[in-house]
Amino acid sequence: MARRAALIGVDWGTTSFRAYRIDAEGSVIETREAPAGILSVRDGDFAGVLEREVGAWLAAEPDLPVIASGMITSRQGWLEVPYCPCPAGSAQIAGALMRHPDRPGLHFVPGLSLIGDDGVPDVIRGEETQILGAVGDRPGRHLLVLPGTHSKWALALDGVITWFATFMTGELFGVLRQHSILGRLMQGEADDHAAFERGLGYARTGRGGLLKRLFSARTLGLFDLLPESSIASYLSGLLIGSEIEEALACLEAPDDGAIGVIGASQLAWRYRAALAARGLRVRPAADDAGARGQFLIARAAGLIG
Amino acid sequence: MARRAALIGVDWGTTSFRAYRIDAEGSVIETREAPAGILSVRDGDFAGVLEREVGAWLAAEPDLPVIASGMITSRQGWLEVPYCPCPAGSAQIAGALMRHPDRPGLHFVPGLSLIGDDGVPDVIRGEETQILGAVGDRPGRHLLVLPGTHSKWALALDGVITWFATFMTGELFGVLRQHSILGRLMQGEADDHAAFERGLGYARTGRGGLLKRLFSARTLGLFDLLPESSIASYLSGLLIGSEIEEALACLEAPDDGAIGVIGASQLAWRYRAALAARGLRVRPAADDAGARGQFLIARAAGLIG
After folding, report:
1. How far is the alpha carbon of A3 from chain B, nearest alpha carbon, in Å?
2. Which tens digits make up the pLDDT trace of B203-216?
3. Pairwise CA distance, residues B40 & B158, whole Å
4. ipTM score here?
5. Which residue(s) pair with B153 in the sheet?
6. Full-model pTM
7. Residue spans of alpha helices (H) in chain B
8. Which helix (H) or strand (E) element contains residue A273?
9. A243:B206 CB<8 A
10. Do A207 and B123 touch (CB under 8 A)?
């Protein structure tokens, strides 16, 4: 721990906990990960989990500010922070940070809300920090996707998040696979790349929308046009491909033509493949984009010494 | 049983059994219903179930032909009958009837298959008979919808089924309600008409497609814009409305502008309300359209004395 830190960033989600020691330039010195998502914390002892995971870092450098983002700021988390309305960049989010009442060095990052033209709200919580980190100081207009159970797409203009949207793709895949007639036909994992691409292709070119297209996962199997071991891959491609079409229909093309994909999960790799198959350029963003975003927010809030 | 019958029609589905005594003009004299769908039949004793349900009718008129349609002709049924390719009317279906090897008076109706322009197959089994019965002898072009777990839309031209498509709407509603984060927010039944219409409206006018729109069922609740007791109704409207948009996008307008809705289930009433809210005219078709279809097929096959 020779190198001095300027900030501890905590990305605390529903099922995962990740902490970063970050230096005064925003580089990550050290990372800790634990299966200590908010759902696993007993009796609301968030302080105990934080102490267990980063207590040694704080003992060595007691004055380090701590900034926490993700579902830890939801009603089920440590301290509920109201959504910050969009558009919002580091400055707006820094202004809406919430300090823990008993721990002045601990700051919570708000999620963002957006009311669409159609009056329907959307929300992100945790992703705003990753988006800011992925875009960094690059000016211009950037389109990003954050794959997950609920996939998020976002637009940032000169470091300000101006739009985002949530797609229930991952959850839909899960419930269809586990509980629907399609799932009963599926065998094995979703690791057949050709079947995945076939699903992508049908999402682009087939007639009708998703409710109709879903049934193809059944009939292609029924007619021996797709082996049962490939149906999960096909369905994954069909859903991710449909999401991409829906998202692109929501907006104009991004300035530089490349779409940022945040994360290095297997799911993120699927999105990269799907975007590439669609002829779109992909700009991978590091899994620790969250740490960079925490640094930018902390700096805007004047927390970096 | 004074009035003489000309045919016994059996509509034998996955979870339901319905039999009709039908006269020489195609009118239903008597109906029997039982929760004796093919999934409930033990040890493949379909003959025993048929005897139990319609044995008295056959004892009184032993020479009556019997015609059975629905999932009874699937691999899980009594006798698997290969799909008859579309386009098909009573004549084609009559020509593809399969006689039981040991019971010459018992005939099974094939389902229909269709290969779309995009090479993807679709199938119906049982609905073909209901469609023919609903259209009857009316010439011209007719568009029909058969609500169900897997909703079917069909086009008939002068009594010939020329196109159909399957939409997984009902099953999707079920798995989302029972197993998704949306279901965890829902309270009560889907009986709020205003919320149902709100879902219909969002299906028509919102930006993005279904994967994006689904999330509105969560955020509207989160922002207290929709009570938890109304989310199920809203989701039902959103899904049925999306299905209607998808189906209409698949085809041109029907000749007479009215859409036939088969059945009198609560679900069928929802579809009627949804189509009416969309400004479309609805032509209700009786729940026993199947009996009429069985009569037309039997007559075309020369089974009616």
Report:
1. 44
2. 998 677 999 999 99
3. 37
4. 0.93
5. B145, B165
6. 0.94
7. 46-60, 90-95, 127-135, 169-179, 181-185, 193-205, 210-213, 216-222, 231-249, 266-277, 289-300
8. helix A266-277
9. no
10. no
